[in-house]
Design goal:
Helix content is 28%, strand content 30%. It is an alpha+beta fold. An eight-stranded mixed β-sheet has the order 1-2-3-4-5-6-8-7, with helices on both faces. The protein is globular and about 40 Å long. GO terms for molecular function: acyltransferase activity. Belongs to the acetyltransferase family. RimJ subfamily.
Length: 208
């Protein structure tokens, strides 16, 4: 079995790039673009969006959300990224979705969970698997994590195909795992460990 990765220095903010794809932190001046994207995709995302059964604890503004997300990045408890795409050589990458690594646990677990969403207009373009591979490699190499987990509703067939193509193992069903679209929902649990991808997940995905 390959030895565990030696953690490198992690300092937030962190951006990752591959080709035209960029993972970068949220910024306050992204509000108009992000809000517009979410509004256009409201119906597309409703079935998969997490909802809060405790409304009193919900974040009340975009600015508050950005503050909380970037604080979690600095503390190393989460990695909240926007999925962005360069549409021209000189253009500023446009926001196409979101990818968040959360529940980062160190010690004997060295694990984290990963979730994402993408603009309906850009679905099926290979952005999500590439973003997942980039983020997973960062967690395995820079953070020195051992295990990455992704939980997906059984009905979300396109999302399940993404992780299956990347080689995540199906480990079973988590009953009433997350509050989604107003109710507690079952999720399929998928996982991958660092020794399973010694060459790196992105390299394996790009080599397919």
């Amino acid at each position: 079995m390959p030895p565990a990765a030696t953690p490198r220095t992690h300092r937030w903010p962190v951006s990752l790039e591959h080709g035209d794809l960029v993972l970068r932190p949220f910024r306050r001046w992204d509000q108009e673009e992000w809000t517009s994207l979410r509004a256009r995709n409201r119906d597309w995302l409703r079935r998969w969006d997490a909802t809060n059964p405790e409304p009193a604890t919900a974040l009340k503004s975009y600015g508050e959300m950005v503050k909380v997300l970037n604080r979690s990045g600095k503390e190393g408890t989460a990695l909240p990224w926007l999925i962005c795409v360069r549409t021209s050589a000189a253009g500023v990458p446009v926001i196409a979705g979101q990818l968040s690594v959360s529940s980062i646990v160190r010690g004997s677990a060295l694990s984290a969970s990963l979730g994402y969403w993408i603009d309906q207009a850009r679905a099926g373009q290979g952005l999500v698997p590439t973003a997942v591979a980039l983020a997973t490699d960062y967690c395995f190499t820079t953070l020195g994590l051992h295990r990455m987990e992704i939980n997906i509703r059984p009905e979300n067939v396109p999302s399940r195909r993404v992780v299956e193509k990347l080689g995540f193992r199906h480990e079973g069903i988590r009953r009433d795992f997350l509050h989604i679209d107003g109710a507690w929902r079952d999720h399929d649990a998928y996982a991958l460990t660092a020794p399973e991808v010694p060459e790196g997940l992105l390299a394996r995905w790009q080599g397919c």
